Amino acid sequence: MAKLRNGASIKFEESEDYFTGSWRKEIPVVLKREVLDANPDVAIFCPEAAIIYKDGKFSHIDYRYCKGCGICAQHLKDAIIMKKA
Ligand code: SF4
Q1: What is the pTM of this model?
Q2: CA–CA separation, 36 and 61 (whole Å)
Q3: Which atom number of ligand 1 is nearest to the Cα of residue 27?
Q4: pLDDT tens for each residue of 10-66
């Protein structure tokens, strides 16, 4: 076992280093971008902050981090569906 000295630091990874997209069994598919444009609050519900907006408009889902939980599809049922990954 390694001994820690006073003032030692332990290397840790940032949350951005964990690509939670590898957990995914299902993938969200955006059917109606205009609905996401009008409902940017959907990004707040995403636990991985994977729904990206730019200049007030929906840009994309960052599939490196989207873990396929389906919360976005529940929130905007007519605009996002879940498919098998
Ligand atoms: S499925 Fe879950 S993690 Fe993926 S974009 Fe939707 S809310 Fe975010």
Answers
A1: 0.84
A2: 11
A3: 1
A4: 777 787 888 989 999 999 999 999 999 999 999 999 999 999 999 999 999 999 999
- The CATH class given to the 26-84 domain equals alpha beta
Q: What is the pLDDT of residue 6?
A: 82
DSSP character at residue 70: -
Q: Which run of H or E residues covers position 52?
A: strand 51-54
Q: Are strands 57-61 and 51-54 parallel, antiparallel or unpaired?
A: antiparallel
Write down the domain spans for the chain: 26-84
Residue nearest to atom 3 of ligand 1 (CA): 66
C-alpha to C-alpha distance for 67 and 35, rounded to whole angstroms:
22
Using most ligand atoms within 8 A of CB, pick from 22, 36, 71 the residue to mutate for ligand 1: 71
Task: Find the helix or strand (DSSP H, E) in which 38 lies.
Answer: helix 33-38
